[in-house]
Amino acid sequence: MTRTTATGDEATAGFVQHPGRGRFNAAFFRVMGPYLEASLRPRKRRVFAGLAGEVAEIGPGVGANLPYVPAGAALVAIEPNRSMHDGLRAAALRAGVALDLRERTAERTGLPDASVDSVISSLVLCSVQDPDAVLAEIRRILRPGGAFRFVEHVAAPSGTPTRASQRLVRRPWAWTFEGCSCERDLEHAIRSAGFAAVEVERYRLHTPFLPFNTQIAGVART
């Protein structure tokens, strides 16, 4: 069963969806999802292992992370891009996950304080308007002892060819992928967000998408 929470001005403040790019991104991740998933699966298996209780996901897109949510469980999905919704609903049905779909931004989930046990994200913090506000919101909705589990792409070290490529394509990349930045130091942002403990693995993918290949995966606990 899928329930969709209607959006309002406050729920999506700061998110401006271009209809064409929204549809393109939904189609892109449907087509490229299996390839990206094959690259990311080892880290996702590690950081998403043992999900239980109340789980929320920010930016679930078309449902790439649903296989890591136990069948029969419920997922609160915070996804402002309407073009992703049909694919997300279909993926939830296939996975046997009850979907509570909320058309909101990650900065303003609308969830009560201390209401979920886990928050998960993959390839999302690169594109939110305010990563610090999103991390504060994640801490707010997590219960004591809860965990934020993440797999994200980040800025490469200064002076490397990958960083040069990130700077070269940053504007067309951000335009195409609805604000996605190749140059965010998300590890620093997560470590500075006030979590009680943060575990981070830095690693590199080997894909044709060079600006995307520097990554982090980890768990931040309240």
From TrEMBL:
One of its GO terms (biological process) is methylation. One of its GO terms (molecular function) is S-adenosylmethionine-dependent methyltransferase activity. Keywords: Methyltransferase, Transferase. Pfam families: Methyltransf_11. Residues 57-149 form the Methyltransferase type domain. The keyword Transferase applies. PANTHER family: METHYLTRANSFERASE LIKE 7A, METHYLTRANSFERASE LIKE 7B. This is SAM-dependent methyltransferase.
